[in-house]
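Notes on consecutive records. When two proteins share a document, each keeps its own sequence and its own token line. Never mix them. Below: protein one.
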Amino acid sequence: MNPQWKQWRLESLPILPDQWPLVVYERSKEQFEVVQKILLSPRVSRVVCATDAGREGELIFRYIYEAAKVKNPSAGFGSPH
């Protein structure tokens, strides 16, 4: 992400990237492409995050949403409004 971070130095802390690179694993690429196609469909006007109550489920949803490059401004994250 940043060549300066290859060697750890105290003065480099905290190491906080502006953006975390998202990588779709080859073994799940086909399924990701199916989900991405649905998320990017012009027929989809809103996406609701309906994952489990734990933070991990929502984080996975947000990673998929970001990796799919969804730009729909009307997409919702679980809000009923």
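Protein two starts on the next line and is unrelated to protein one.
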Amino acid sequence: MIRSAEGAGASGVVVPAHGSARITPAVCRASAGAVEHLPVAVVTNLARYLADIKRGDLWIAAAAGESGTPMWKVDLSGGIAFVLGAEGKGLRPLVRRTCDLEVAIPQLGRVESLNVSVAAAVLLYEARRQRST
């Protein structure tokens, strides 16, 4: 996910201290050096962090497969922070309620979701596409 975020021009990545992958040497290698070019912050309470960073020019978007709003129907051209849940578990209820909107990556196949790193890449590059038009 860090490599995709850096490649798409994101300004940083935030991960919760509990329940997410740690930034280990293996993660650094998998990022192909992206951790050297992109700030990665670890926060204790993600819902509180999201509430603190909310402002008029930064919207918090929850990636939610069951959302009725496809990503291309949402204006992602401004400041946006994507929040993705754990694979299999999704977003925690409090984190989800803290978000301003929900977006979906429509699935045509029989699987109901993408893995979290692929979902992040798809959303990040959709935002980049919208900003370039």
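For the record: The radius of gyration is 14 Å.
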